[in-house]
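task queued by scheduler; priority normal; single chain, no ligands, no partner chains; default sampling; output format set to structure tokens
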Amino acid sequence: MTPDDDKLLRRAIALAGEARAGGNPPFGSLLAGPDGTVLAEERNSSLTDRDITAHPELKLARWAGRELDPATAAATTMYTSCQPCGMCAGAIARSGLGRVVYALSGEQLDGLKPPGTAFTDPPSEGPALYTEARVPVEGYYR
């Protein structure tokens, strides 16, 4: 971590405060280019947008996927007030961002929440029907 990382991470924390002040969960993120220039900022808007996926990390990953070429995306750093959730981490990986710097870990976040408020994964079953499911996929990734 450099002093520039600290500065940009503090901005992400400020964005989290703005999200909370706007009636949303307190999470904020920004995407910086290799020279530290802020390319885009986002705040959580899941309540005001009535969209459970309106996390700032996901919004920035989607923006990067649309607006940046792969080489530029790989040279960026996302600064975020909290460790990205699984949904956001998947989008970040697919968008090709180069680095993520976060303030609170997921474990630290859970420690700040009242008991019984953590998300739980629903039961799942699988894999199943491999022979049928492979037909539309086979050969796609060549």
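post-processing summary
- The first strand starts at residue 28 and ends at 32.
- The chain has a mean pLDDT of 96.
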